[in-house]
């Protein structure tokens, strides 16, 4: 017989054994419950992420790339060829977009290495405001200003950043809305050039 610590009464060893085995079994159940909660949370996250991506891509064009032409901020005329010699990166961004700021130096690096890059500043103000922003940020890639969002609308862009890879046959090979790494974009440009 043992004295029970809380009550000072005596107990037989069997009750303590039951309590101890219940506590040990309970920890196994709590681990299972914890993993079940993690799985449910992960599932909810995947569903929400998938829903957001579907919403972002809802109007994005596919197939042949829409016409794209205009005067860049540097004063050079730009026309997207119907069948470019090499893959082209068409990148939509905005000065007010925090994710665009994270990505902008990758886009700038690609533009410095590859002349087949054009960007579209969506609803970002006047030409002078965009030039000032780019100077402050230390970026220098070719930009078409889209002050009223017409170009973005033609391409089905509702959210930025949005990146399109146009293949040499004039088809849209790849679209990404949201952050994309510079390495990922370079790889997609290269694959598009191979016809993959």
Layout: helices, strands, pairs:
Elements: E1 2-3, E2 10-11, H1 13-56, E3 69-71, E4 77-79, E5 88-93, H2 98-113, E6 117-122, H3 127-137, E7 143-146, H4 150-155, E8 162-166, E9 172-177, H5 182-194
Helix pairs in contact: 2-5
Rg result: 28 Å
Distance between the termini: 79 Å
What is the global morphology?
A: globular
Largest sheet: 5 strands, mixed
Q: Classify the beta-strand content into a percent band.
A: 15-25%
Mean pLDDT: 84
Helix-and-strand structural type: alpha/beta
N-to-C series of helices and strands: EEHEEEHEHEHEEH
Q: How many DSSP H or I helices?
A: 5
Task: List segments where confidence is low: pLDDT < 50 over at least 5 consecutive residues.
Answer: 16-25
Helix content: 40-55%
Strand order of the largest sheet: 7-6-5-8-9
Count of DSSP strands: 9
Written account of the structure:
The protein has helices spanning 13-56, 98-113, 127-137, 150-155, 182-194; strands spanning 2-3, 10-11, 69-71, 77-79, 88-93, 117-122, 143-146, 162-166, 172-177. It is globular. The strands form three sheets. A five-stranded mixed β-sheet has the order 7-6-5-8-9. The protein has a two-stranded antiparallel ribbon with strand order 1-2. A two-stranded antiparallel sheet has the order 3-4. The longest helix has 44 residues, at 13-56. The chain is α/β, with parallel strands linked by helices and 196 residues long. The protein is 46% helix and 19% strand. The termini are far apart.
């Amino acid at each position: 017989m043992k004295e029970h610590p809380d009550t000072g009464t005596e107990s037989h060893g069997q009750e303590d054994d039951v309590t101890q085995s219940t506590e040990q079994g309970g920890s196994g159940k709590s681990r299972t419950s914890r993993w079940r909660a993690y799985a449910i949370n992960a599932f909810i996250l995947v569903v929400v992420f998938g829903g957001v991506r579907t919403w972002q891509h809802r109007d994005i064009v596919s197939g042949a790339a829409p016409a794209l032409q205009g005067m860049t901020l540097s004063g050079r005329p730009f026309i997207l060829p119907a069948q470019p010699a090499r893959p082209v990166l068409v990148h939509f961004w905005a000065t007010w977009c925090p994710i665009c700021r994270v990505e902008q130096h990758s886009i700038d690096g690609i533009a410095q290495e590859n002349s087949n890059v054009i960007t579209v500043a969506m609803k970002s103000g006047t030409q002078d405001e965009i030039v000032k922003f780019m100077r402050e940020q230390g970026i220098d890639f070719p930009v078409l200003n889209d002050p009223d969002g017409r170009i973005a609308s033609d391409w089905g862009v509702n959210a930025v950043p949005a990146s399109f890879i146009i293949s040499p046959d004039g088809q849209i090979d790849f679209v990404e809305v949201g952050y994309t790494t510079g390495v990922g974009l370079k790889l997609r440009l290269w694959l598009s050039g191979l016809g993959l």
